[in-house]
Amino acid sequence: QMQLQESGGGLVQAGASLSVSCVASTSGRILSSWAMGWFRQAPGKEREFVGYVRWGSGVTVYADSVKGRFTISKSSAEKTIYLQMNNLEPGDTAVYFCAAGPGPLSSDRVRVWGLGTQVTVSS
């Protein structure tokens, strides 16, 4: 059974960059048809899609709100994905959750969730 563990996060000022990562713990391989990605939830708001990477092809998909600022990459050997966040805005403040499931990844297709890591952007 897969488990996801996020790391990174923290407090930064607006305009700064930050990177978070997520390691998948599983005894087996990650299916090429699966995707791993990120969702986020701000206080008082619903969880929203950030982006994902298809495990087999490496194709990435992003929410419009982060396109051009956020980049998701993966290391197949380490079963890890990375979220590089540039030019952060106060509106990016949220708990960031790692997720995995059959692609394309949407909240209703997620099979495994991480516990989340806090990202806070001050103005």
Key traits:
single chain, 123 residues, mainly beta, seven-stranded mixed β-sheet, four-stranded antiparallel β-sheet, 11 strands, 0% helix, globular
Can you walk me through this structure?
With about 120 residues, this protein is an all-beta fold. Helices cover about 0% and strands about 55% of the residues. The protein contains no helices and 11 strands. The protein has strands at about 5-10, 10-15, 20-25, 35-40, 50-55, 60, 70-75, 80-85, 95-100, 110-115, 115-120. The strands form 2 sheets. Strands 2, 4, 5, 6, 9, 10 and 11 form a 7-stranded mixed beta sheet that branches. Strand 7 (about 70-75) and strand 8 (about 80-85) form a beta hairpin. The chain is globular and about 45 Å long. The N and C termini lie far apart (about 40 Å).
How would you summarize the topology of this molecule?
Layout: E1 3-8, E2 10-13, E3 18-25, E4 34-41, E5 48-54, E6 60-62, E7 70-75, E8 80-85, E9 94-102, E10 112-113, E11 117-122
Parallel strand pairs: 2-11
Antiparallel strand pairs: 1-3, 3-8, 4-5, 4-9, 5-6, 7-8, 9-10, 9-11
Strand content is over 45%
List SSEs in N-to-C order: EEEEEEEEEEE
Reported for the largest beta sheet, the result is: 7 strands, mixed
Mean pLDDT: 97
Structural category is: mainly beta
How many extended strands? 11
Between the first and last Cα atoms, what is the distance in angstroms?
40 Å
Task: Write a compact overview of the structure shown.
The chain has 123 residues and is mainly beta.
